[in-house]
Amino acid sequence: MFALTLALIVILVREGFNEPAQDPELLEQYFQGDISVRPIQSRNGIANKILHWPNGVVNYHIQQNDFDDIHYKEILRAISIIEANSCVVFRNASQEELPQALIITSKGVGCNCSYLGFRNKTHQVNLQIFPLGEGCFRIGSILHELLHVLGFEHQHVSQIRDKYVSIKWDNINPEFKINFVNTDNTTAWHDFGEGYDYQSVMHYVPKAFSKNGEPTIVALKKGSSNMGQRFNMSVKDIRKLNKMYNCPGYV
In this structure, what are the phi and psi dihedrals at residue 46, rounded to the nearest 5 degrees? Predict the structure, then answer.
């Protein structure tokens, strides 16, 4: 009886802090936990305009049979947050546009996307069904995947990250150390002059891919108490997105 009570307490504590037992953004079968096709190299935001959605318009289709009404509306809420904070527009894809559109589904495991940025072919985001506020249906997790679609990498692989975080390589499961590498200096990814952002919705949680329960990412400066948050886009997330898509007032 005591063991059962203790187990229930552990579950409730996890849920209270909005942290599922296994973060569905950090699955072993995906690069960096949530990207199907590994990027050329790892940086913060794609500067190559060829990989930006043309005219800042994302043609998309939500597989309605995959989601009930409340989950469908939560996806639309995340889309509306991006639209309200940038010049990016999400538009329901016509039948002819589907081969180059974003398809949002829940047929797979976890929350993940096919690619980073526009690729002139079908781009899929999977959002596994969880109760609202948990797993892939934390509003920040939906935003996280949509920002991948728009061209953003994870913050922790930023070229300047070593000034802001210490990667604890000894605590990382050896199989997943590749998810923390940021040694490339040739690919056109950058932070659009906004700098490192502990508050970014694109930042890993401190214990991502830990083999022993100890932190794999330790902040080196102040302001990191909410590192890995999945509540909303940060101020810098918004500014980077607007600069990436040349939104009025940000060019």
Answer: -75, 125
List strands edge to edge, sheet with 89-92.
89-92, 57-62, 102-105, 123-127, 111-113
The Cα 126–Cα 5 span in angstroms is: 34
Is 145 an annotated catalytic residue? yes
Closest CA to 142 of 94, 115, 120, 110: 110
What DSSP assignment string belongs to 148-193? HHHTB--GGG-TTGGGTEEE-GGGB-GGGGGGG-----SS-EE-TT
What letter would DSSP give residue 199? T
Copy the structure tokens of residue 198. 């502990």
d(CA 133, CA 140) in angstroms, rounded, equals: 9
What is the pLDDT at residue 87?
Answer: 98
Mean pLDDT confidence for 142-157: 93
Of the candidates 74, 145, 153, 194, the residue annotated as catalytic is 145
Segment 9-60, tens digit of pLDDT: 333 333 333 444 567 655 555 555 445 545 544 445 677 888 899 999 999 9
Distance CA 31, CA 81 (A): 26
Closest CA to 67 of 113, 114, 129: 129
CA-to-CA separations, 89 to 50, 97, 232, in angstroms, rounded? 17, 15, 18
Q: Is the dihedral of CA 50, 198, 171, 28 positive or negative?
A: negative
- Both structure tokens of 187: 């690919």
Summary mean pLDDT of the chain: 84
Domains and CATH numbers, the chain: 23-244 (3.40.390.10)
Please work out, in degrees rounded to the nearest 5, the angle formed at the alpha carbon of residue 141 by the alpha carbons of 235 and 91. Answer: 80
Residue 38's CB is within 10 A of a number of other CB atoms, namely 13
